[in-house]
Amino acid sequence: MEEEYIELIDVNKKKTGVVIPRSKYKELLPEGQRVLIAALLVNNSEDKIMMQLTSKEKGSILSLPSGWVVQGYNSRDTIVREMYEEQGLEMI
To answer: Which residues 6+ apart lie within 8 Å of 32 measured at CB?
Structure first.
């Protein structure tokens, strides 16, 4: 799989123009800058909320469908990608 890059944002959610490899964000994230994560809250007609079980590496916990907003994508694109990858669904 090709390396993904993330564009950093500041505390006001404005793009900083700084792009770093996602795999190295912990070591390269400058102080005062953030990464953007998109999440989706879906509930059905019975008011049940969709959750996903994370991998063993991530602690096998329940979480909302979510993902990193990588360079060139917006929040909506990210959620579509995540739903397709993690839930086997495709949103139109």
So the answer is: 10, 11
